[in-house]
Amino acid sequence: AQSVAQPEDQVNVAEGNPLTVKCTYSVSGNPYLFWYVQYPNRGLQFLLKYITGDNLVKGSYGFEAEFNKSQTSFHLKKPSALVSDSALYFCAVRDRGSGTYKYIFGTGTRLKVLA
Amino acid sequence: ETGVTQSPTHLIKTRGQQVTLRCSSQSGHNTVSWYQQALGQGPQFIFQYYREEENGRGNFPPRFSGLQFPNYSSELNVNALELDDSALYLCASSLVGEFATNEKLFFGSGTQLSVL
Q: Cα Rg for chain A, rounded, in angstroms?
């Protein structure tokens, strides 16, 4: 069965410091991988995705993620955190062979950037 | 803004009732999917409609049903509401096409359903 694990419920980081939000996945074959962010009372917003190619993917708002096939991980990173980055972050996978946009989401990691 | 709107934003129902949630997709998108997000959980896939036909379903019972209309709007219907149906319901639209590199879901802000 496909699954996504976000091992940290919350990550605290000081403004200006680098941040990492972890994600590991379990899925047969080669998946598509995504990060979405959710602000209070809002739907999810797309940050970035890995489809194929370079393992380092750059996305919106200065975020990037590194795909590591051997460790089945797709950690989200940012070199310098902003207070405005504080939000709920979701990692998601989709079966590459699926004909539907059935995303499997992790349980989310709350990022708190301290001023 | 994603261009996806959902109504109502909040809804309170009692157990056993039926509810209809509505979504207006981004113009030009041919696919809509619905997700249920329980408190403290990630969204869970309910089903997907492509060109007005259901073409994928998650582990949800038949009392969850949907419709997609030619004008890019869609509905999620839930019959015989149960207490565990209390959740945020998210609609996401997308343009399914030839190139996976274009894949992206555009989510609405959701409908918060409370079942008492």
A: 14
